[in-house]
């Protein structure tokens, strides 16, 4: 039965069973799940004559033995120009400055840390931020004080960097 080969068909004995089957006439299903063939925390389901593995995320293959190369499967999985590193069962995004999150999908609001000094106004932007400095101050963080005697302008203005 079940594609097994028996040397003596008449008695049904001495059978060589196909994979997944056992018993004198190959009529009995083998419960492969007893031997835990599914790797990396996959769940095993016994079926008639076979079994199947339901792989955990990050693994693939009949027995979930192969790591999924997420970086190759999805070149844009790490966002905003961040580098992707494949690791067993997962992947790692190395975010460039200004972004955070599992996939570097989140813009960091640098203004939360109040980086603009001397009453400068902070403007968050995607991947960066800038400071609109108060009068007489300049620099990326408005940390440089201008000489008041040489500045003919009045009122606040945005100083370039
Ligand atoms: Ca991987
Ligand atoms: Ca930002």
TrEMBL record:
Keywords: Disulfide bond, EGF-like domain, Glycoprotein, Repeat, Signal
A GO term from the CC aspect: plasma membrane
Entry's Gene Ontology molecular function annotations: calcium ion binding
Entries under InterPro entries matching the protein: EGF (IPR000742), EGF-like_Ca-bd_dom (IPR001881), EGF-like_CS (IPR013032), EGF-type_Asp/Asn_hydroxyl_site (IPR000152), EGF_Ca-bd_CS (IPR018097), Growth_fac_rcpt_cys_sf (IPR009030), Notch/Slit_guidance (IPR051355), NOTCH1_EGF-like (IPR049883)
Disulfide bond entries: 17-26, 55-64, 95-104, 133-142
Glycoprotein found in the keyword field: yes
Domain EGF-like span(s) in chain numbering: 1-27, 29-65, 67-105, 107-143
Similarity comment: family membership: Belongs to the NOTCH family.
Protein name per the record: EGF-like domain-containing protein
Gene Ontology process terms (BP): axon guidance; Notch signaling pathway
SUPFAM superfamilies attached to this UniProt entry: EGF/Laminin, Growth factor receptor domain
């Amino acid at each position: 039965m079940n594609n097994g080969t028996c040397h003596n068909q008449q008695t049904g004995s001495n059978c060589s069973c196909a994979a997944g089957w056992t018993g004198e006439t190959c009529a009995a299903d083998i419960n492969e799940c007893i031997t835990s063939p599914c790797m990396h925390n996959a769940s095993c389901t016994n079926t008639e004559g076979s079994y199947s593995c339901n792989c955990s995320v990050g693994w693939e293959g009949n027995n979930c033995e192969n790591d999924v190369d997420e970086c190759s499967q999805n070149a844009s999985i790490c966002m905003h120009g961040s580098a992707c590193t494949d690791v067993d069962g997962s992947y790692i995004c190395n975010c460039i400055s200004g972004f955070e999150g599992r996939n570097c999908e989140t813009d960091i609001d640098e203004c939360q840390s109040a980086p603009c000094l001397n009453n400068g106004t902070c403007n968050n932007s995607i991947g960066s931020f800038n400071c609109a400095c108060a009068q007489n101050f300049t620099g990326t963080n408005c940390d440089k004080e201008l000489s008041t005697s040489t500045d003919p302008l009045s009122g606040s203005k945005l100083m370039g960097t």
